[in-house]
Amino acid sequence: MSMISAAVIATIIYLILTLAALLSIISPVLQSISSHGKTLTSKINNTQHEHKKFIHQRLLHFVLTSPRLTINKCRFIDFYTIGIITTTSRLAHTTITYYYDTDISTSYVNKQQLVVPILLLIHLFRRYGECKWVQKSTSSTSYMHLTGYLLGILHYICLPFVLIPHHSLLICTNDDEYKDNNGAKSFDIQQSTLLEIFSIIGCLYFQYQQYRNHVLLANLRSRTKKSETYSIPTGGWFEYISCPHYFSEIMIYVIFAILMHGNTTDLTEEWNSTQTLFGDAITTLHLYKNWTLLLWVTTNLSISANRNHQWYINNFRETYPQHRKRLIPFVW
């Protein structure tokens, strides 16, 4: 399987996951298997005493509420372990292929294409470290459904095929470094450098903010560990929104999408030459793979943020800050 087709398959998977996430808004079944932590616990508690008459109802009830099909949220670390393995493997394959297929004497590595992979690895290693040394889960309430766990693994398996460039994009020569297919100058190097600088600073800033918010949550859970209850988060961006760690994650992927934009055009030439509906579909999927990934992440985290916000309101009622929004400060 070529890396182009693998990227397209990953894009299709993200589209399916996005559709499933949207359906979970109206489907109690999908909502149950996609919830985790306090929101998953509340749904189990609401259904565990219901009497089911039919076999398929009992089976569905077992699938949704059985502790045997839930996993402690401390296993979130598995997501980042898989992400690190797949990302480094994909990056190594791309680099080795570049040196194997390219005449190094007449070309060199386009360093612009390595910005996103490096930022992605920083993100994955940081999240791994947070899961291992910072974040804490209360023993009886922080669980996720097995289905959600497997979908998380799937996300991090697909991730490097979308964000790490094809090896041909690493090739730069003195003749075509900044020219498009017609020989015209495609972009200004100074503007590109400024975009990269601001994007890197922005990505690192939001990564720091996400780390800071996870520390606040971890400290909050440490204070309430004996009672195994949840408290209202305070400090930092929690003063403005219920899920600032989700907001930071979305912004990190926004920066990934911006940096990846326009970097896949050359790879779709072989599909464009077929002039078929299938070729056009493959081309479109490949061109917009970065935005499809962003759509999935934004949709999933927005829905999760809304559920968490509603949980806080339902459980703390008047004591929960009324000015606090769900995900976007001062907006929503």
Low-confidence stretches: 175-180, 183-190
Question: What strand order characterises the main sheet?
Answer: 1-3
Overall geometric form: globular
Residue-averaged pLDDT? 82
- Strand content is under 5%
Helix content: 55-70%
Distance from N terminus to C terminus (CA atoms, Å) equals: 42 Å
For the biggest sheet, the summary is: 2 strands, antiparallel
Q: Helical stretch count? A: 12
In N-to-C order, the SSE pattern is HHHHEHEHEHEHHHHH
Rg (C-alpha, Å): 22 Å
Number of strands: 4
Classification by helices and strands: mainly alpha
Describe this structure in words.
The strands form two sheets. A two-stranded antiparallel ribbon has the order 1-3. A two-stranded antiparallel ribbon has the order 2-4. With 332 residues, it is mainly α. About 4% of the residues have low confidence. Helix 8 runs antiparallel to helix 9. 30% of the residues are buried. The protein contains twelve helices and four strands.
